[in-house]
């Protein structure tokens, strides 16, 4: 019962309230006197070029951060799987960015990619990284990958501990090389963890916010706006809470659809592996 109450108060009620607000021209100063507009806020979103741009940027961020986090996280987990004296130290070092504040690392990367920052100094270039949509997205994606590798590494490392050594030894005795053992033994054994990591990273990719807000503030000219920063601007800068709530509902639907598709596809593969 306590858990159900907390879930209802802090999860269900805010979701219902956001859905209600999305149907109104909700002005925080007018409160309950806000005007009911039905689905006008949703129609407005579909006709808003900035909404589609922010959705595209969120998708780009997801596409260019999720695969590297999976590949690099798994590769590092494989390297740290063997017992070695320095293994705990390397685990801590790779996981440290995960527990570091998003605000701190966002400001750090902002200075690294500044016109006179370390990146330009090392490359010997004068690229204005944060003043162009694509180069700014490169910097934002680089931060996302760097900060997230440690999390996926720890999940994969935990999953790898459960891979039976006897299966790998039997495959090696049968003449299987490293890649064949990895593909036929390791991957099927850690597939549930792989599914969990993929789903969570995709959800996190669509919910990117702090790094964009602090590194570019959606600039230049809104070109690096993502769904959450666009929603934040509409709700808290323009005080257009009805439109902001509609954007939040649309984001929830996008994440829900992607999650359902992933669970369906990967669970089918899991069933095939088990069969």
TrEMBL record:
Pfam families for this protein: BPD_transp_1
Top-level taxon in the UniProt lineage: Bacteria
Record GO cellular component, one term: plasma membrane
PROSITE patterns on file: ABC_TM1
CDD domains, alphabetized: TM_PBP2 (cd06261)
This protein's record includes keyword DNA damage: no
Domain ABC transmembrane type-1 residues, every copy: 55-262
Positions of transmembrane segments: 60-80, 92-114, 134-160, 189-209, 241-261
Subcellular location, record wording: Cell membrane
Keyword annotations from UniProtKB, A to Z: Cell membrane, Membrane, Transmembrane, Transmembrane helix, Transport
Family: Belongs to the binding-protein-dependent transport system permease family.
Designated name of the protein: Sugar ABC transporter permease
